Amino acid sequence: MSKELIFYYDLHEYYLREEGKYDLYLPCFSEIVRPLDDFSQVQPETLKRRGQEGTDVHDTIKMWLDGTLDESTLAEGNEIALELLWKWQENEGNTIGKLVEWEKPVYHEKLLYATTPDLVFDEAIVDIKTRSYNKHKDPLQLEAQIRCFPEFPPKKGWILFLDIENRKYVFQRAYYKQAWNMFRKLLDKWRHDREVETLIKNWKNS
Mean pLDDT across the stretch 165-185? Predict the structure, then answer.
């Protein structure tokens, strides 16, 4: 029986649809690794602005790759991001194989989580960031995405940091030996917490 991954972009929610069954909610990466986040030293408005800037850059790159971008309407920051992407592509983008897909939601068939890799190449997955490398989260993210592609040899994970302010890019491997084990622990925690929340809700309503 066929299964279909449904992604609601505005809600950033993933569901697995199977004929004759209810849609199954799949957690996304950001939900699973939320215990690693600490934004206590960041003002809420700053956090919101940075998040929107990152979203705008990703949307711009996707439209460019889709061939639907009107470059005459670009804000300066997005224009710089595209220039950095072109520079990276010219210098290093051809070292990791052919680009085969971008911004396409995928899921892990056994562990039932979902994610949307930015750029998927023959030999690698590249995640585009508008902030510097995060050694605690980025290796987990790339490992979680790589595991959704059951290939051998496995793809390698890379972070492409588009430093718009300084008009430069940084391209580096996102790898840590224990990343998969840590991600699995966090996924187990997410499922346990969700189970407990359901038990409490049912208990209160009984």
Answer: 96
